[in-house]
Amino acid sequence: MVESKPTAPGTIRKSAGQSGTGPGPITPDGSPVELYIESDAHGEDQVIHAAIPPASSILELGCGTGRITRPLLALGHRIVAVDESPDMVARIPETETVCSTIEALRLDRRFDVVLMMSFLVNVPDDEARHALLTTCAYHVRPGGTVILQQHDRESFARPRVLERDDHRLVIDEVEHLSGDRDAATMTHTLGDRTWSQRIVVQNLTEQQLTGNLAAAGLRFVEHLSPDKTWVRATPR
Ligand SMILES: C[S@@+](CC[C@H](N)C(=O)[O-])C[C@H]1O[C@@H](n2cnc3c(N)ncnc32)[C@H](O)[C@@H]1O
User: What is the pLDDT of residues 223-232, one digit of tens each?
Assistant: First the structure.
């Protein structure tokens, strides 16, 4: 694993409009490590598995604590898991990890599948989005697949509360910003622990996404889910 400086507990980095607070380590984009340690997949692994060949080699960008990595490994895929947070990748001893920003990543290998979930493609900065997609394009083999999970604009349309088992998520302080950007504060409560993460996203029309993919050397192929949040692309 490539080492970098650990994130101090409660650290806030207000880059690209993202920040986070709460117990335990917080990643530079505001994600709470302890929350992800206790979170399970909710069908994401099945969407991905259905879209790719058996026993694929996968480069997972922004893997977190391996919430999706582990189910995909169990389904027979081989994964290199990448995250800029050493606190996150330290939680995935089951497979090879790389601690790096996605933007700076340049491995000397190509993969059947490059996976970038968690709405990272909706980063509000256009140059940052281009850098992320360029990394996807660089690491996918000819004829391979890039799978992206986009933000669903409905989820920040208005404040709301979601509850599942003992996990309560409050989405509030919703702001609709210029340039079709949305911001919201997501407050997760799990037992007696609470984390808040301020998120700013760039909504992308199909035309904008297609253009962004093309600029990075990728071609939009299809949506993989009726809500259009899951996208398949391929090298041009
Ligand atoms: C919201 S968490 C989700 C983790 C995982 N994809 C999941 O669904 O459980 C987002 C992760 O992406 C990582 N991340 C965000 N931007 C990144 C970047 N530019 N380079 C590397 N990692 C990044 C964060 O450190 C965090 O672990």
Answer: 999 999 999 9
161-184: b (≥16 Cβ within 10 Å) or e: eeeeeeeeebbeeeeeeeeebbbb
CATH code, domain with 226? 3.40.50.150
Ligand 1 atom 4 nearest Cα: 64
Taking the centre of ligand 1 as the mean of its atom positions, its distance from the CA of residue 171, in whole angstroms, is: 19
- Number of domains forming the structure of the chain: 2
* Residues whose beta carbon lies within 6 Å of some atom of ligand 1: 27, 29, 31, 36, 62-64, 67-68, 83-85, 88, 101-103, 117-118, 120
Residues 146 and 181 in one domain: no
Domain span at 110: 41-150+205-235
- Is residue 73 domain-resident? yes
Tens of pLDDT, residues 109-149: 999 999 999 999 999 999 999 999 999 999 999 999 999 99
Q: For residue 4, tell me if it sits in a domain.
A: no
